Amino acid sequence: MSVTAALVKELREKSGAGMMDCKKALSETDGDMEAAIDWLRTKGLATAAKKSGRVASEGLVAFAVDGTRGALIELNAETDFVARNTEFQEFASTLATLALAADDIEALGGVDYPDTGRNVSEELTHKIATIGENMSLRRMESVSVGSGSVVSYMHNSTAPGLGRIGVLVALESSADKAVLEELGKQIAMHIAATSPASLSVDDLDPESVQRERDVLIEQAKASGKPQEIAEKMVEGRMKKYYQEVVLLEQTSVIDGETQIAGVVANAAKRAGTDIELTSFARFNLGEGIEKEETDFAAEVAAQLS
To answer: What is the maximum span of the chain, computed from C-alpha positions, in angstroms?
Structure first.
């Protein structure tokens, strides 16, 4: 039986073991979920299983930059208390550094973790067992340039390179590094504040664009406009939509009047050479994670029973 990503994910959620360990367990047991869990237990890799059902929505975002490449990772834990733990912070920083040489999060899981004899996935399982909270290496993203700078910014920084909102900005240029650093920081602060959906209009998800267009057309038609008039009205509204969600179309929060595309162009003009904003990455800690909601009355009743 072929081992699918969905099976690996399911086993990881059930066992609390690392991604690569789950993949190996499923391969060894021909995809049998229960047998794979037993295989992990016999190897001592499912010691955190009882913790794996807990929601890990706290933790840290970490970045690392090396020359023309930068990487962001999100390492989750259950409580903010653990995020302030020195061991956890060092783990997050090391993962960000290791991510510089990894293509994706699955590859990162198989990278050797320094001075342990374990890979990243195995070290994560070890940390869960020793620190005592469920943890998750949730995601990673990297950006790079051929020539220029990758500029980093951390909002609500906990320690150098660690915090809750991390941003990387990739600027392709032969301009002076100090110029690119200043421009990159300005754009990164803007990204942290606005959370753009894409770099350019062309990069937007086509389904999202069509969904927005359909909604606007229906709104126009509901006001009594015929189809052809409604479609013309929507073009203007779509332009406003792009200005809200597309980075290069957004108005800078720094000066409140210049589009980000214009901010880059103005910097290039001052530098006397081309500057291209080629990519960015932004992680906001815990975004998209459904946090556990505690029923206070039920909790009290359980304690009294």
So the answer is: 74
- d(CA 223, CA 230) in angstroms, rounded, equals 9
This prediction's pTM: 0.75
- Give 224: exposed, middle or buried? Use CB within 10 Å, 0-12, 13-18, 19+: exposed
Give the domains, in start order, of the chain with CATH numbers: 5-51 (1.10.8.10), 58-198+276-284 (3.30.479.20)
Q: Cβ(49)–Cβ(129) under 8 Å?
A: no
Q: Are 240 and 234 in contact (CB under 8 A)?
A: no
What's the pLDDT tens digit per position in 230-243? 777 888 888 999 99
Helices and strands (H and E) in the chain: how many: 12, 6
Cα torsion 204, 146, 69, 5: sign:
positive
- In terms of DSSP bridges, do strands 136-144 and 69-77 run parallel, antiparallel, or are they unpaired? antiparallel
Q: Which two tokens stand for residue 124?
A: 């994560």
**Residue 45 to residue 287: CA distance in whole angstroms:** 28
For 279, the 3-state DSSP assignment is strand
How far apart (Å, rounded) are the C-alpha atoms in residues 95 and 79?
19
Opening angle at CA 16, ends 126 and 13, nearest 5 = 155
